[in-house]
Structures are given as structure tokens and as C-alpha cells.
Amino acid sequence: MGFRPSSYWRLIWQRSLLISLLAVSPVALSSEEPGQAEDEDVSAADTTQQQEQGLLPINELRTFADVFDRIKQAYVEEVDDKTLLENAIQGMLTELDPHSAYLKPEAYQDLQINTTGEFGGLGIEVGMEDGFVKVITPIDDTPAKKAGVEAGDLIIKLDSTPVKGLSLGEAVKLMRGKPGSDIVLTIIRAGIDKPLEITVTRAVIQVQSVRGRLLQKDYGYVRLSQFQINTGADMLKLLEKLRKENDADL
Q1: Over the stretch 138-148, which tens digit does the pLDDT of each residue have?
Q2: Contact 201/180 with Cβ under 8 angstroms?
């Protein structure tokens, strides 16, 4: 085995994560190089020693780097490095178990929002209508409500970005942002000829995962929309509130 300069190993470390790219890239590869059979015993011994010492498996990482380079050179379409490496990470975690997954920064942020129930936003429930964002209802005591946004308003522009052509998810991402920052909503309102511009200052919005009400004597209704960090405590508070309204156990 020839001597490799330290820069070679740094390159392998920087570019190597997983061999799973083979599963998604239709590139013909040989698992054996000329002279490789002669080094199998040595490679196996090296791998065992590395595992015992808690080191990275250099031979496997070298294989990954070779696969990476060949895909870059021979794949039918050009694929950027970031995409290849992210696919490799996803493949690695997918093979572990059904509950392990790799999340990109945007997906992780969405997960945090769903888990904590908090995000920087306007405080409106929205849908899509005729390609525009329709305000279903502004939530009480939120920036949108205080700024004068009304149910039924059609949002046609977010700052300088036209809403037409955006998905609902894309529009929602534009409306969310750092608490304290401003966004200008251009809206169409029934009964008003010209579009209105409303400036809304984003704030921390608390998403309610538990809602409920007393239907009639001794009967209550509770709706759990998603699990968040405080869902258990919120559920107990709501049940206690309904018991007090009922003046008895439900």
C-alpha cells in the first residue's frame, strides 16, 4: 500500500459520508480494482484495527470517495455535490429504522414549530382561493387582528412578491419571520374598489394544539390537533376549565 499525503485523507473525510449513493445512481461500478485482491487481507486487518481503536473506516470511506468521483464523472446528468451528499445521508438514516430521518434546515425548522407550537408570524388562518391567499380568520390578540386584517380578505402580494403562482406553503413561509420585523400585505377586500396595503409587525404566535368546549350538561368536546411540548399540560387545564363550567365532573 502506497503512502498517501495528509491532504488526500482530508479530502476523503470532507467528501465521504455513505456508500448508499450506489442505490440511487444508475452508474456501472466495479467493486474490485486491479491488485485489490492482493490487499484484501491487509485491508480487513486495517479495518478491524480501526474499529477496535474507534477510528473511521478508511477503506470504506475510500470506496465512498471513489463512488462519489465516478458519479460526478459518468452520471448521465450533472449532479451538484450538496445533492449527492444529502442523498447519502438520507440513505444512511433510512436504512437504520423507520423512525430515523435526515432533515434539511427548513424541514427541521418546521418540526421545531410543530413541536413547540411557536413561530414568528402574523396570526392568521389561511387557505387558497383563485390563486390568492384567503384569510379564513385572524386569531384574536395577534398582529394581524390588531393591524385590521379581516376574514375573507384576499392577499395578492407579500411585500413586493406577488402571491399568484405561489403554493400555500411558499406563501406561509414568506409571512413567517423574525418577531419584530414588518411585512406589507396587499389585500383585496369585498366592498372596496382599490387594493389595501396593511403593514403587520410579526410576533411570536402560539399555536393551540388543544381546543374544546362544553356541549351540554355533563358533556364536553375536546379536539387535539397535534402533539406539542405543552400539549399534556394544556389538556389538563382545558379539562379543569370544562369541569368548572359544568360545575361537576364530565
Answers
A1: 988 899 999 99
A2: yes
As a whole number of angstroms, the distance between CA 87 and CA 22 comes to 10
Question: What's the CA gap between 227 and 124, in Å, rounded?
Answer: 20
Residue range(s) occupied by CATH 2.30.42.10 in the chain: 120-206
| pLDDT tens per residue across span 23-47 | 444 444 444 444 554 455 545 555 5
Angle at alpha carbon of residue 226, lines to 150 and 91, rounded to 5°:
115
Locus of grid cell 423507520: 98
pLDDT digits (tens, 9 = 90+) for 192-210: 999 999 999 999 887 777 8
**Cβ distance 58 to 44 under 8 Å?**
no
In this structure, the number of other CB atoms found within 10 A of the CB of residue 137 comes to: 15
Mean pLDDT computed over 103-108: 74
CATH match for 120-206 among 2.60.120.10, 2.30.42.10, 3.40.50.300, 3.30.300.30? 2.30.42.10
